[in-house]
Design a protein that fits this description.
Radius of gyration: 15 Å
CATH superfamily: HUPs
Number of domains: 1
Order of helices and strands: EHEHEHEHEHH
Number of helices: 6
Strand order of the largest sheet: 3-2-1-4-5
Largest sheet: 5 strands, parallel
Strand content: 15-25%
Oligomer: single chain
CATH topology: Rossmann fold
Bound molecules: 4'-phosphopantetheine
Number of strands: 5
Shape: globular
CATH architecture: 3-Layer(aba) Sandwich
CATH class: Alpha Beta
Length: about 160
């Protein structure tokens, strides 16, 4: 797998330590990993712009040499084909994630048969984490320092205070 490219797609609104855990574990298995900020049609437009999410991700992965950050407004299956990716990697937190993720994996496989979706089990300590929960805590003045990469903690807090 070391010669192959994997994609870690997501909304990353914003990136959490749960995402970072999945990204860094993926980077240990694949030669190169592209983290790609995408649109989830089931979520509202988000709290951070795509540019802000990309910038925060770049800071968060700066010390992982084989990880790049990108964004794409189209289909994940098309992006994977363009990049000749071998795998799409998603983190699974709980059974509740599974049905939707399974459906997406099957649709992506149908649209791009040459890419496999791999699911990594989230680390136990991150099971409860979500970007939306973190935004809610930060907006109400709570401490999010255990939930987000330290290097972007202030960006998130300042931005959500302003917003
Ligand atoms: O972090 P999320 O919100 O769970 O990520 C979901 C995401 C953005 C990866 C998913 O919605 C997606 O792949 N969006 C791109 C558009 C697309 O390909 N849709 C069809 C998926 S079957």
């Amino acid at each position: 797998m070391k010669d192959n490219l994997a994609i870690c797609p997501g909304s990353f609104d914003p990136v959490t330590i749960g995402h970072l855990d999945i990204i860094s574990r993926s980077a240990k298995m694949f030669g190169k990993v592209i983290v790609v900020v995408m649109t989830n049609p089931n979520k509202s437009s988000g709290s951070f712009t795509v540019e802000e999410r990309v910038e925060m991700l770049k800071k968060a992965v700066a010390d992982i040499p084989n990880v790049e950050v990108d964004h794409y407004g189209g289909l994940l299956a098309d992006y994977a084909a363009r990049k000749n990716a071998k795998a799409i990697i998603k983190g699974l937190r709980a059974v509740t994630d599974f049905e939707y993720e399974f459906q997406m994996a099957l649709a992506n496989k149908k649209m791009n048969p040459s890419v496999e979706t791999l699911f990594l089990t989230t680390s136990a300590e991150n099971m409860y984490l979500s970007s939306s929960m973190i935004k809610q805590i930060a907006a109400l003045g709570g401490d999010i320092s255990d939930f987000v990469p330290a290097v972007i903690h202030n960006d998130i807090v300042n931005r959500l205070k302003k917003g």
